[in-house]
Design brief:
Layout: H1 3-8, E1 12-14, E2 17-21, H2 22-29, H3 33-42, E3 53-55, H4 58-63, E4 82-84, H5 86-95, H6 99-122, H7 125-175
Antiparallel strand pairs: 1-2, 2-4, 3-4
């Protein structure tokens, strides 16, 4: 396994971004994590914005594929790690100026490029055809539902017309003069 492959295995996805964590970068550069963090804090203006670097939360550590919070190494982390995006790793090269850090930074940048280029390769033509077929089926189902809804609307309209016609007929029957009715019950004779 070459260096790029080793580095690719240390690239994680957190908050929808591909990042490397500070302790992995410190190990790759051959410095202590505390020294790397100190240099970053001294030059914090270079890392403003989440597109360069952000601090990982405990929930993110528990949810992501990093095995940090297992029993053993890193179980009770005192300081939450920094996550460096590709831009942040590039900016680190200006903060850590040793020849070994610059050499390692080149390898890390190549690994980020390799990860970015490998994503389209994962989308094989058969997968694309499968997605297109699913999209076509979904489109047909939506059209069928809409046509059924239009038929229901036409049926409903016809029923409403029949109801309104029946109501008009009932109103005209009511308006006809009614013949006097015979009284019901005991009627006293009138004198």
């Amino acid at each position: 396994m070459n260096d790029i492959e080793l580095i690719r295995n240390k690239i994680y996805e957190i908050r929808g971004q591909r990042v490397m964590l500070d302790f992995d970068l410190a190990q790759a550069y051959g410095v202590d994590t505390a020294q790397l963090k100190r240099q970053v804090r001294r030059n914090i203006e270079r890392f403003e914005g989440d597109d360069f670097m952000f601090e990982v939360t405990r929930d993110e550590l528990l949810r992501c594929q990093i095995g940090i919070m297992n029993k053993g190494r890193g179980y009770n982390i005192k300081y939450l790690p920094f996550a460096f995006t590709e831009l942040g790793v590039a900016m680190l090269s200006s903060v850590l100026r040793s020849p070994s850090a610059i050499k390692m930074n080149r390898g890390i940048m190549r690994a980020f490029v390799a990860v970015r280029q490998s994503l389209p390769a994962l989308m094989l033509p058969s997968k694309l055809q499968e997605i297109e077929k699913g999209l076509k089926n979904l489109k047909q189902e939506v059209e069928d539902i809409l046509s059924d809804q239009n038929e229901i609307n036409e049926d409903t309209r016809a029923q409403l017309d029949a109801i309104s016609t029946a109501l008009v007929e009932l109103q005209t029957e009511r308006k006809k003069p009614q013949q006097p009715r015979r009284p019901i019950g005991f009627n006293a004779p009138q004198d």
